[in-house]
Amino acid sequence: MKKIINNISDVEREMLEGLVAAAPKKLVKLNGYNIVHRANLNRDKVALLSGGGSGHEPAHAGYVGFGMLDAAVAGPVFSSPNAGAIFKAIETVANPNGVLCIVKNYTGDILNFELAIEKARSIGIKVDHVIVADDVASQSTAVGRRGVAGTVLVHKIAGALAETGAPLERVKAIAQRTIDNVRSMGMAIRPCTVPATGVPNFELSDKEMEIGIGIHGEPGMRRERLTNADGITRKILNRILSHLEYAGREVVVMVNGMGATPFMELCIVNNFIKEYLYRNGVLDVYDTMIGNYMTSIDMAGFSITLLRLDDEIKMYYNAAVDTFALKK
Amino acid sequence: MKKIINNISDVEREMLEGLVAAAPKKLVKLNGYNIVHRANLNRDKVALLSGGGSGHEPAHAGYVGFGMLDAAVAGPVFSSPNAGAIFKAIETVANPNGVLCIVKNYTGDILNFELAIEKARSIGIKVDHVIVADDVASQSTAVGRRGVAGTVLVHKIAGALAETGAPLERVKAIAQRTIDNVRSMGMAIRPCTVPATGVPNFELSDKEMEIGIGIHGEPGMRRERLTNADGITRKILNRILSHLEYAGREVVVMVNGMGATPFMELCIVNNFIKEYLYRNGVLDVYDTMIGNYMTSIDMAGFSITLLRLDDEIKMYYNAAVDTFALKK
Fold it and tell me: Which of B41, B47, B239, B285 is most buried as measured by Cβ atoms within 10 A of its Cβ?
């Protein structure tokens, strides 16, 4: 394993401290917890909290700030934070307007967030949650669609509405509507290596790729012969397009790098997308995001996310945002 | 070689087309040229042009937009654009206020930019240039300090002044002052692979790293045993600190990924920097940038850039910027 780290057991803490050190006026890390919150918490709005295993950076701590999250709680690499840490994060941001937890659809995350929410409610904290499930690759598995890069757009849309002072029910409703309208799928040409194990999550020959990978190093739905960028992109788009009706709709496209994918390759992927969507009836690609938004440590590959817009989602998509990893 | 590309000969063009497709209201690619310019060129200001070989994305096309560049010209991967293409770019952005070319210190880039500038002057275009030389690793080589990630800060500072309508001489002067105050150094744990050759630029065992690498896959000043993040960071900072007097100064820190380095590792690197700079007499880390700003395709590694601030540089550092790869 080759990584630029110190002790394996300090990776999560040092990473969050290093992020906060880059924005000390805007971000605070709670002592003793892998929780990052806004330096100036606004108690007059619904608080947004997200979290999950580490290894998906800049998610989620990179999205703490005006227009997105109020706090993020990080577990060990690829493992859910425990219920105690999640409860601590809820308690930290809680205010009478309530807290909305944005949870990705993984068994551990859901279990621990629900335990923490139950405990928070038992002491009178107003708190609710939504579950993001955008990965069409895992649609037919027992757990259903996993939560992947689409989560970042849920942070963005719900975060923008929350800044207006809207009540918890409305913030939850638009988060859910964003979830209902967002779908993703990913692929990899090289696996990632979890620091604690030191070995790649799967092996791929020089001529193979994994289609439909998860963000926790899960191998894909199937292993295929590596084709060219256009062929891979078409395959992923076809799969996403078959899951929702996109004809006549405006969409936001996110081309997301998995951590070790050069920007060059992400742009080449994007070069195929717009015309192909138009040929498949999409009315307009309203905006395109290209970058590392929800990664899988040092995996080489990408995911594509399509968000269907309506007037309200579009308005909140366009709203100002000031976080370390996303600014508008 | 595993890459997400189509034909090797189309990499540069498709990458730029894919970038422009993501921001079609803001960016235009010149037909038949690997030149990207602002969709709405402002003829009432000095035009800023940069460029060089491809493979450093998002540099330079990602920095075209309000507050930074007016255009960028891209050569083949790791090779200078030819003088004809540079001339075309100068001609495209030329206006009576003049054009400032921001050139990185490489023999090919300088030769071709100077030829293009000579030709432009011969037809009456007002054009000048500066040469960025921030890489302390190559200080004692024949070419001297190479131009690396510090170039992005030169775009930023000079670009902000240019937006105010300042004359060419002043824009050139602040670009030069930024160059005089910026130093960088990089390292790699894994080499990059140029699409056209298909093989890594150098070989490293699992226990080795290269210290002082260039952004064109040049091996480092020396090969060393891979140590931990803090040790590597200290070594790089010591080298940079020995090249300029930083005591009592405010600095901007840029922790730059080389293309395949996870954000997690860049944050861990950053976690060491601030306190170490303070212990070495730096007055204040005014701001910290962490991300992939000037890459080397799919190299795994990072560089650190320190920019010394003065009141004017700080003001232009803080100015609004709206490009694909940098927003404030």
Answer: B47
